[in-house]
Amino acid sequence: MAGRQGAQRPNGATQGKICQFKLVLLGESAVGKSSLVLRFVKGQFHEYQESTIGAAFLTQTVCLDDTTVKFEIWDTAGQERYHSLAPMYYRGAQAAIVVFDITNQDTFARAKGWVKELQRQASPNIVIALAGNKADLAQKRMVEYEEAQAYAEENSLLFIETSAKTAMNVNEIFLAIAKKLPKNEGGGPTQSRQSGVKLNNEQTQQSEGGCCK
Amino acid sequence: MSRESTPSNLLRSSVDGYGFNKGENFDHESYDEFMSRYISVLARRASRWQALIGHKTRVSKSRKVKRYCRKGIPSEYRAMIWMSITGAEARIRANPNTYRNILLSQRDEHLSEPITMDLHRTFPDNIYFTGTEGFRKPLNNVLVALAHKNIERGYCQGMNFVAGMLLIVLKDEEKAFWLMDTLINGILPDFYAPDMRSVKAEQELLGEIIRWKAPELHAHLESIGVQWFLIGTKWFLCLFADVMPVETVLRIWDCLFYEGPKILLRVAATLILQNSSKLQACKNFSQAMDAFKEVTTSASCIDCHEFMKKCFDELGPFPSAKISKMREECLKKIY
Predict the structure, then answer these.
(1) Any chain A CB within 8 A of the CB of B284?
(2) What is the stated purpose of this protein (chain B) (predicted)?
(3) Which of A51, A126, A145, B294 is 20 to 30 Å from B274 at the Cα level?
(4) Cα–Cα distances in Å, from A57 out to A38, A39, B1, B230, B287?
(5) All structural domains of chain B
């Protein structure tokens, strides 16, 4: 049962382009990075999500018109001291989601720090999305929508408020990123082997999470 | 040898002996099959340990005790043996008021806040860590006390899982505090330092060990973009807690507390080498990452007795002097 390569597709039947992108999630501890990924990849939510140690790797596929976009997702740990590990994960990434918690101003300030760092040190064409998570807790809101949106506009970021708990805008943020990514040559400078490559059809794996369904 | 589904299967508890919910992916088949064999091992080990310890309340280190630790400490003796062989027990006796005094003294919010945030995110699937009763408050106390005693290190995520597991076994927060403090200051490399240099170096070291023991596999993994720091951060920071099956983690710790951190490398290398054909078959990076996720949870990890044997018997020479020298080299490469 080891090898599951080979999408067993009749010869010649094309299903459009398949693009693969590396995406990294960054943001303060406990803002909901892992929860967003868990919602996107498995459609689940845990009220108490374990703290992420180091980073977790997951994949998920979305379909856009005739293009299949496979995300290779690095969900990183949020604690300040893990900061020194972050460049190892965002190096070569074509996309990033910087997450903050709309009920906590400090996490928004930290998100701005991440955006600055990505603009300075990540790939120049990286697509950055800002996610104001925990939108279901709007009654405890400390970061105004307009404030975050203005900041996102100034910095040419995608901005969406999300709720991993209710699933609001979770798929949407990944789709919005997928739309913005260049699908021709697989995106920006490919610095490492695993990033931004257009795959041959036979290399794809079926993903259960529901592409094109 | 497939076991039929008998009525007794209906009695399977959804919670294991340490309070963990087994979850929907729990491999009951392998676990039951293993436990039915392991029970006799446990009984034999228990009688050997009993003969060794008698009514003593502490043990000294000796070749025999080391050998016994490798074969596993029965749960009824585990707390006492861990406290003895690490020297934590002696430190409690020498510092009877320290723990209480730290907790009574003024707290630094900067140190306590990240701990509070992780309390409900530590073993959320364990019955002892849900709700306000149980180990949540002791966990908070242990981590806060550790952060204040070791101010320059503070709190590092990952410590929560180690301390949580210690509480489950020791059932005493002061003991958990001292054992963990002894680990941090005496047994482990400086894994929890804010610069994370040691934990990065340890992963490089794991890579070098694989290069040494299985050069082809090493070359293959590097050729598909695997870098060692992607693999082992949680392995080393959590000392395999929340990574491998609980019983296996405890067996690893039986050896770690006696022999030191080399055992973590033995375990890590064994996990990789016993899956070398699977890893070698990975055609790309994401396949490899999926395969690495499975190496810590496969049926061969559930059988902790066989697994520990493998760690010692099948790795070939693993001399401490060489490992220490390699570790130093790896540390030099990390800035």
Answers:
(1) yes
(2) May act as a GTPase-activating protein for Rab family protein(s).
(3) A51
(4) 11, 14, 35, 9, 11
(5) 7-76 (no CATH), 92-187 (1.10.8.270), 197-333 (1.10.472.80)
